[in-house]
Structure formats: structure tokens, C-alpha cells
Design a protein that fits this description.
333 residues; single chain; alpha/beta; 11 strands; Rossmann fold; 12% strand; five-stranded parallel sheet; 39% helix; elongated
């Protein structure tokens, strides 16, 4: 759903300027619910639909695609656009550092996050003139205040020293990271309550042992659950994070929200996480690790020192859809 968080605001911006935008969504994709909430018109693309026929019918002035994982429908639209005798400008919206490695076709324009993202795009296509415009990071888009949620989360802290920590992972990178985190919380002298917001993409995915990742995560949490250190919440993850004391994750984009606020953004690092990040984005370190100065948990240890420290605020701009929309229009001039 990362690409949808970048592209939908730009679609709204372009439509607001009076431009005709055809929003194509993979039928079984996870972005459908978000689009229904936005009330923005879109067209579902089924597995049997022909991307080439769709492009011929629409005859677009430009094709703007995200960089999902796995990248199936978007990749086919890229290929078909490049196969036409006339040039169809191709724009790629980068929603996380390094994901441009998933794209087989180079784009005419890249909408990137920041200077680090720019460098990674250029490294992906060495020797090629690459047009880049920074549009910011959708993962730190401001969220509405929720006083009721804040009050309920505040009530979970029985003492001033109690801490609320959000865990947003739950797939292949969770083993052994989640086990290490649970052990670390149990070793911490402060009372730490974990708020799991498991990634919905992996909840029902089977592990090699035949259990799902959802079931496995629940089992790993049992020692914390038994002592009242796990609290489930249904509100959106970003809303919860703004009132929590920190986030612990391998490389989730949600780490950037506490990092930009000067809160605890704890990277859970091990060989499994490193392998998964490299497979997903071609990176050997997470963005926070590349920046330096942010905490990393590689083995179980008490978390007290992490909560005591004042962490630097990561310099990152939220997504500005207007800049992206204007860059796309400039490409067509």
C-alpha cells in the first residue's frame, strides 16, 4: 500500500487542477479500502485484463506507476508503455529508499524522497541521465489529532516511567527480531507495554513449520501477554505512533515517524532482517543505520538506556503532492 500513499494525493492534486487522471488498481491489491475511503474514482484491473489494451484505449500522455512488492501489474504496464512506437513518458514514484531496484524499465522521471533516495536512483541506472524531483516521504504525513486515543494510551501508563512501544512488523524479518524484543522488554526495569500492529500482508502467510506468521507472532508474545505487557489497539498505526514513546522494527517506514519527532526509533537488526531488506530494496543497511546516530538492537538487552536518551530528530520532509503533480505536468510540456 506504500505506492498508494504516494500516488493518491497526487491524483487528487491533478484532478483538482482539472486534469483527466485514470487511476488503475490491481483487483486484489490492498489499496482498495484506502481508495474507497478517499471517494476518488478508480478502475480495477483484473488478472485477465490486458494492460496493453487498456493503454491503447486510454492513450495516456504519461504513465505514472508505483514500485510495489511484488511488482507485477505495474511492471507489465511499464513494459507495454515502452513497447509503443510513440513515446509514452514513464514516471516512477519512490515510496521507500532503494525500491527502484524492483523496476525493470528506467523511467523518464523519478519522484523521490530525499537526497539519499536520489543517490540510490542514480546508482540503479549508472551512466544514464536521470530526471529526479524530491517530493518528500508519505510515511510521515501529518495525522489528525485523536484526543480520545491519546487519553486511552496515557491511561496505560500507570507510572510516569512506563513506556508504550509499537511493533509494526510480523513477516520473515520478525524471526528472531520479535523474540529478541520480547526478551529485552522482560529484562527492562521500566514497565514497557508492547502495542503490536502486525503487518497485514504477512498475517496469513505460511511459515516453513506450517504455522502462519500471525499465529507465530502471537506465540512469541505469550510471555509478555501473560504479565499484561501487550495491548492490542484497532486504530491506524500512524495515529497510535504519535502518542507512543517509540517504535521497534527491522526497517518499516513507520520508524521514520518517531525518528523525525526525536522519539525512540529502534532498529531490530539481525541476519534475517538484513537479508529481507536486501531482497526488498537492495540495501545493506536501513535508512536510519545509513544516517547513523540511532539505536540498533542486535541481541536481547534491557531497553532502559534507549528510553533515557534524547535522540536526534531525523531531517525529512513529508510528502508534498503539489510538487509531484507539477513535476509530472512539466514532463509533458
Amino acid at each position: 500500500m506504500g505506492p498508494a500513499n504516494v500516488l493518491l494525493p497526487m491524483v487528487q492534486e491533478l484532478r483538482g487542477l482539472g486534469h483527466e487522471v485514470h487511476l488503475l488498481i490491481e483487483k486484489d491489491g490492498r489499496a482498495t479500502a484506502k481508495l474507497n475511503e478517499s471517494l476518488q474514482p478508480y478502475q480495477l484491473v483484473d488478472e485477465g485484463d490486458s494492460p496493453r489494451d487498456i493503454l491503447v484505449k486510454l492513450n495516456p500522455d504519461a504513465l505514472v506507476t508505483g514500485i510495489s512488492s511484488p511488482r507485477v501489474m505495474e511492471a507489465e504496464f511499464d513494459r507495454q508503455a515502452r513497447s509503443f512506437s510513440h513515446h509514452v513518458p514513464l514516471v516512477h514514484a519512490v515510496d521507500y529508499w532503494g525500491v527502484e531496484k524492483r523496476a525493470e524499465q528506467p523511467a523518464d522521471l523519478y519522484l523521490t524522497i530525499d537526497a539519499v533516495s536520489d543517490t540510490l536512483v542514480r546508482q540503479r541506472w549508472p551512466g544514464r541521465q536521470v530526471s529526479i524531483v524530491q517530493v518528500g516521504f508519505a510515511g510521515i504525513t501529518p495525522v489528525k489529532a485523536n484526543p480520545d486515543l491519546k487519553a486511552r494510551m496515557d491511561s496505560l501508563r500507570e507510572k510516569a516511567s512506563d513506556k508504550l512501544l509499537v511493533y509494526p512488523d510480523g513477516g520473515p524479518d520478525a524471526d528472531p527480531a520479535l523474540r529478541h524484543l520480547v526478551s529485552s522488554i522482560l529484562e527492562t526495569s521500566q514497565r514497557v507495554i508492547l502495542i503490536p500492529k502486525f503487518h497485514p500482508k504477512f498475517k496469513d502467510v505460511l511459515r516453513e513449520d506450517g504455522t502462519t506468521w500471525g499465529v507465530w507472532c502471537d506465540r512469541v508474545l505469550e510471555p509478555l501477554t501473560m504479565c499484561g505487557r501487550v495491548h492490542m489497539m484497532s486504530e491506524p498505526t500512524d495515529e497510535i505512533i504519535q502518542y507512543a514513546d517509540g517504535v521497534a522494527s527491522g526497517y518499516s517506514s513507520t520508524l521514520m515517524r518517531p525518528a523525525t519527532a526525536g522519539k525512540l526509533a529502534l532498529t531490530l537488526w539481525n541476519q534475517s532482517t538484513a537479508s529481507e531488506l536486501f531482497r526488498q530494496a537492495g540495501l545493506k543497511k536501513s535508512p536510519l543505520m545509513m544516517q547513523g546516530g540511532y539505536p540498533v538492537l542486535a541481541q536481547p538487552k534491557p531497553l532502559d538506556e534507549f528510553f533515557k536518551r534524547q535522540w536526534p530528530k531525523y531531517e525529512l520532509q513529508p510528502l508534498n503532492p503539489s510538487i509531484g503533480a507539477q513535476a509530472i505536468l512539466a514532463l509533458l510540456d
